[in-house]
Automatic annotation (TrEMBL):
Transmembrane segments: none
Domain of life: Bacteria
Protein name in the entry: ABC transporter domain-containing protein
All residue ranges annotated as the ABC transporter domain in the record: 7-245
Length: 249
């Protein structure tokens, strides 16, 4: 893990009507770290990362990636800046094949790589699926043939095959079996080793403590603190999340 800053989150705000989902949030995320984002339900984690990845427009504030302001208007633009996301909900599209889902919005990437037809695209996607250890998933099959867990695995391929600088993983482990989780952890480790950054959102505090290097806490859309995972216990994190001693009262 280096101390070089990858992403600066600066005074970022987002409201939905009268709900101030993200209020003037600022913090830094370093290169090559798993940076967890925690907070109770509704604390603004998904809203913040959805702005970073072009899903929601930002109200005010900036994201600065490797020293450069980015303003992605959609997920493809975010991908082209080097930011990808595995969204909290289902992130694949029904009615398309597995390969079409993996490469959606990136047709230019494979044209450049000399991949010009469906057969070639399927071959490329099958090779990727094999590399990830997901051989039983077939590129030419319709995505609808696969269950929620398999579709999450396909999203892992989609979000990480091009070695993005930042990958957001929003509550993905909740949807996965232990086996699926182990697959995800393997790919998180690979991304980190490549010097890239993961923003890891999860409700599972033991998992957060084990898998992250750094943790940022949000409460009611407000930034609370950024701490080192190794200095923290579950109780410390709970206190930061709820803002008072956990006395059970
Ligand atoms: P978290 O991911 O931490 O659980 P969210 O970012 O999803 O929290 O939500 C933060 C707040 O913003 C909540 O009050 C939620 O109801 C609201 N919110 C999130 N997305 C929307 C939306 N698309 N429309 C209206 N309100 C939203
Ligand atoms: Mg969320």
């Amino acid at each position: 893990m280096s101390n070089e800053v990858r992403l600066q989150v600066k005074n970022v705000c987002k409201s939905f009507g009268i709900t101030k989902a993200v209020q003037n949030v600022s913090f830094n995320i370093n290169k090559g770290e798993v940076h967890a984002l925690i907070g109770e339900n509704g604390s603004g984690k998904s809203t913040l990362t959805n702005m970073l990845t072009g899903i929601y427009p930002i109200d005010s504030g900036t994201f600065i990636l490797d020293g450069k302001e980015i303003h992605p208007k959609n997920q493809v633009e975010a991908n082209n800046e080097g930011v990808s996301i595995i969204v909290q909900e289902l992130g694949t599209l029904s009615g398309l094949t597995v390969a079409e889902n993996i490469f959606l919005g990136h047709e230019d990437r494979f044209v450049k790589a000399g991949i010009k037809n469906t057969n070639a695209m399927n071959k490329e996607a099958d090779a990727l699926l094999k590399k990830y250890g997901f051989e039983r998933i077939k590129a030419a099959h319709m995505i609808d043939e696969y269950n929620f867990e398999d579709r999450k695995l396909i999203e892992i391929v989609k979000a990480t095959y091009f070695s993005p600088k930042i990958v957001v993983i929003d509550e993905t482990t909740t949807a996965l079996s232990q086996e699926g989780r182990e697959e995800l952890y393997k790919h998180m480790e690979r991304i980190r080793k490549e010097g890239n950054t993961i923003i890891f959102i999860s409700h599972d505090l033991p998992e957060i403590l084990e898998k992250s290097d750094t943790i940022t806490v949000l409460r009611d859309g407000v930034y609370i603190d950024t701490v080192k995972s190794k200095d923290m216990t579950e109780d410390d994190l709970k206190k930061l999340m709820v803002g008072r001693e956990m006395t059970g009262k």
